Amino acid sequence: MPARRRKPLTLRRRESRAGLALVAPTLLVVVAVIGIPIVWTVVLAFQRVRLATLRRTGLFGEFTLDNVERVLNTPGFAETLWTTLVYSVGATAGSIALGLVAALVVRRPFRGRTLVRASMLLPYVAPVVAVTFVWQVMLDPQLGIVNDWGRRFLGWDTPVPFLSQESTALATVVAFEAWRYFPFAFLFLLARLQAVPGELEEAALVDGATPSQRFRHILLPQLMPVIAMLGVLRFIMTFNKFDDVYLLTGGAAGTEVVSVRVYEFLTARTDIGAAAAQAVVLAVVLVVFVLIYLRFFGRRVG
Question: Which PROSITE patterns does the record match to this protein (predicted)?
């Protein structure tokens, strides 16, 4: 019986195969760099693994829920989770608000606008080690310029240790995070503002609308999808932040976030299983918060 001749590939199938061939290397890199570490972290979260026994631990060893139970019952877990939530929400809202103000300021042409726009990106592009050091020096109780000006112009009797007392440390870290990442929101919001048709504002101006009315009824509705998207992105990024908090306070004075807690489990206790379980719990909590956010703002994000 003669072999059946294969039908020639259509143009669409040839394009699909070519597309898969082009995407395959990137997909393999993503799986190797992201997928495998995630799977290994989840596996370690359910095994009794310490730094000394890591080499002897197999991929499919003895699984247990002791790590998760220990993490959830460890004193301070609820407080750390609440601190992380306050830090994430405050820094996200602050960075978007500052970015919106900055975008509105440089929206109209003026002399030196290019230089001002470029300077606004400095907090975002500067090395985190450098900017945290600058903030530590500025806020130093003895040598910092903030306390010096506070005593000179505001009548402070004693210097304020912004980064070492619980009443101010968390607010200071939130302010730093909002300042450092407002350029991220600034770029998105400025791009959307420049795409708003000028005829809309001109018509409102002819109708006698005030600047606040034009912002509320014309600009803000145009910006809401971008703001909703920025809210999701910045919340996820801030919720997982480690370096900013650790470099500023080391997690002391009521600023211990979950990522710093994971680091302490891993380094101080050398308990890899508990650190992995803490990371898994962090991921689950983050997913829950993002789903709640998308439930109320999903249409605007879309």
Answer: ABC_TM1
Q: Mean pLDDT of successive 10-residue segments in the chain (302 residues)?
A: 60 74 83 80 79 64 76 81 91 94 86 86 90 91 88 85 89 94 92 83 79 83 88 88 89 86 78 81 83 71 52
Structure tokens at 208: 């006698």
The Cα 179–Cα 164 span in angstroms is 20
Residue 124 three-state SS: helix
Do 43 and 190 share a domain, yes or no?
no
Residue 9: per-residue pLDDT: 64
Closest C-alpha to 163, from 176, 149, 182, 181: 176
What total number of domains does the chain contain? 2
Q: What is the DSSP string of 237-290?
A: HHHT--HHHHHHTTT-TT---HHHHHHHHHHTS--HHHHHHHHHHHHHHHHHHH
What are the two backbone dihedrals, phi and then psi, of residue 58, each rounded to the nearest 5 degrees?
-85, 170
263 alpha carbon, distance to own chain's centre: 18
Q: Are residues 96 and 190 in the same domain?
A: yes
Nearest C-alpha neighbor of 238 from the set 123, 132, 94, 126: 94
Q: Which two tokens stand for residue 64?
A: 């247990």
Q: Which residues pair with 47 in a beta bridge?
A: 63
pLDDT score of 58: 60
pTM, two decimals, is: 0.81
pLDDT value for 213: 82
**Is the CB of residue 165 less than 8 Å from the CB of residue 253?**
yes
Flag whether 30 is in a domain.
no
Q: Are 145 and 63 found together in one domain?
A: no
